[in-house]
Amino acid sequence: MDRTAEYRLAEIRDKVQNNIRLTYDDGLFLDQQVDLLTLGELANIVRERKNGNIAYYNVNEHLNPTNVCVYRCNFCAFRSDLKGPRAYVMSDEQILERAREANDRGCTELHIVGGLHHLKPYEWYLNIIRIIHNAFPRLHLKAYTAVEWDWFARLTGRPTKDILAEFRDAGLGSLPGGGAEIFHPEVRERICEHKANAENWLRIHQEAHELGLRSNATMLYGHIENSHHRLDHLLRLRELQDRTGGFQTFIPLAFHPDNTKLAHLSKPSVLMDLRVMALSRLMLDNFPHIKAYWIMLGIPTAQIALSFGADDIDGTVVHEKIYHDAGSTSPQELTVEEIRRLILEAGRTPVERDTLYHEVIRDHAVSRQWSPGKPLHLEVLTTAN
Length: 385
Ligand code: V47
Ligand code: SF4
Known about the structure:
Strand content: 5-15%
CATH topology of the largest domain: TIM Barrel
Number of domains: 2
Structural class: alpha/beta
Bound molecules: ligand V47, iron/sulfur cluster
Number of helices: 16
C-alpha cells in the first residue's frame, strides 16, 4: 500500500472509531484496496459497538408452499415450471402439519416464501397465513418477499400497502429480506429481468415499515456483479433505513451456482464471503444486525464471520430448499445445542432471540434435551423484553 492509500486507510479507521458515516468512495476503497484482516478488524469495531459479544440465533423452520414459479431468475435452482417433474404445491393439511411440527418443536418463527404459482389466486397465499396463525398464534410468521407482494398486487390490481395491511390483520408478523438480489439495473436486468425492480422492492419495504411491520434485507453476491453494484445496493438500503428505521437485519447471500442457468460461474470464495460481510457491516451503519446465514456460508465460514461483522447466525432452519437445490452441502438443520456450541467455539455469547430480537429465555435443563423430533416445552419460554 503506498503512502496515499495508507493515509486514506487511517482516515477511514478514524471515521469507524468515531462512528462517522462512510461514503461510497470509502466503501470502494475498502472493497478494492484493503486486505481482508484489516477489513475484518474495522467491521469488528462496529459489530462490538452495536452488539457487544453477543451472537444471536433463533429456533425456526422454513416453509416453501410451492416451487412453481412464473419467473425464471437465472440464479434460481428452486423454481419449477407448472408441469415440471419437480413441481409441487402443498395442501392446506400439509401446510398445517408442518406448522404443527414447528410449533411442537418450540420454534418461535416460521419463515414462509415460495414461487409465484401460475394458477393460484391471491386468496391462496392469504389463507396460508390465516390458517397457520389461527391454529398456532404463538408462531411468528415471517412471510413473503417483496417480489411476492409485488405479484399479489399484479394479481389483484390493488395497492401493495392495502394488501400488506390485510395480511398483517390475518397474522403476518414481518417480511423476510429475499428478492433484493442486486438492485442496479445493469445486473438486475440480466439475472431477473421480469420481477419487481429495485424501486418496487424498496417501496414495498417502506410501506411495510409504515404499517409497523419490521423487515430484513438481502444482497445476492458473487455472480456477475462488481464492487460498484454492491455499494450501490448497500447505500440504497442505508438511505431507506435512514427514513424508516424498519430494517432489522441485513443478510449477504452467497451465490450457489449448481443446477442454475449460471452454473458455469464458480461459487464465491470464503475470502469474498468474509469481505462482503465486513463491508456490509461497515456501510450499513444504521442496521442493528448483520446475519451470517450458516446454510449459505457453511458452518466454518459462519463461525469466522462472527468476527467479521456478523452478530447473528440465523436459526435451526429445518426444511431449507432454496440453497440445497442450488448445491449447498450444509446440513439440513442444526440443533439448538449445536448452534450454541458453534457460537461459543467462535468466542461469542449465544443468545436466543425471537424474530423481533427479543431475548428468549428457556429452561436450559429442558432445552438441553431438545433434538429434532423431540418437543421443547413452550410453557418455559418467555421473552425478556
Ligand atoms: O431472494 C435464490 C436467494 C433468497 C439462490 O430474511 C439464492 O431472515 C444463492 O432471502 N444461490 C431467498 N442465493 C432467501 C432469503 C433469506 C434467507 C435467510 C434468511 C432471510 C431472512 C432471508 O435466496 C432469494 C435469492 O436472493 N437465492 N437462489 C442461489 N442459487
Ligand atoms: Fe421464482 Fe423466486 Fe426463483 Fe425467481 S428466485 S425464479 S421469483 S422462486
